[in-house]
Design goal:
Helix content is 82%, strand content 0%. The chain contains five helices and no strands. The chain starts with a helix and ends with a helix.
Length: 141
């Protein structure tokens, strides 16, 4: 029964984390379009920070915790698909940390990246998610 709980809590955490990873770059796209110091800019700063601090980071930590718990219970460490999944999750985590830096740059009014940059990086979590889901469901290795 512990494995089922670990998996369920892992999936719930992932859904929250992915929602943030997909939404935060979109907020940044819109943030690039408003004037620094404007009321809209200040609102985006609040939205970005709350999304990152209140939802994304706790969900990331929970995803890792419940995922490692489930992997331990399932003895997944010796399976090839799991190593690839884990690598993709590390890359997803790195994208999270990059986003933290971009939120800080916006908060300090020093963003220099254009709208197109955030549109492009918005696709990275999606591509990583596709790879992760394939590894977990299909288990090709």
């Amino acid at each position: 029964m512990a494995y089922e709980w670990a998996r369920a809590l892992h999936v719930i955490s992932i859904i929250a984390w992915m929602a943030g990873l997909l939404y935060l770059p979109r907020l940044m796209v819109y943030h690039t379009k408003v004037a620094v110091g404007s009321d809209q800019s200040e609102l985006f700063k609040v939205m970005e920070r709350r999304l990152l601090v209140a939802i994304m980071t706790p969900a990331m930590i929970a995803s890792w915790g419940f995922g490692l718990w489930a992997a331990f219970l399932a003895h997944a460490w010796d399976q090839g698909w799991f190593h690839i999944k884990l690598t993709l999750v590390v890359l997803l985590t790195l994208s999270h940390f990059f986003m933290m830096g971009w939120v800080k740059a916006f908060r300090e009014d020093r963003n220099t990246r254009p709208e197109k940059f955030y549109r492009a990086v918005n696709e990275i979590p999606t591509l990583l998610m596709i790879g992760i889901v394939i590894m977990v469901i299909v288990r090709p290795f």
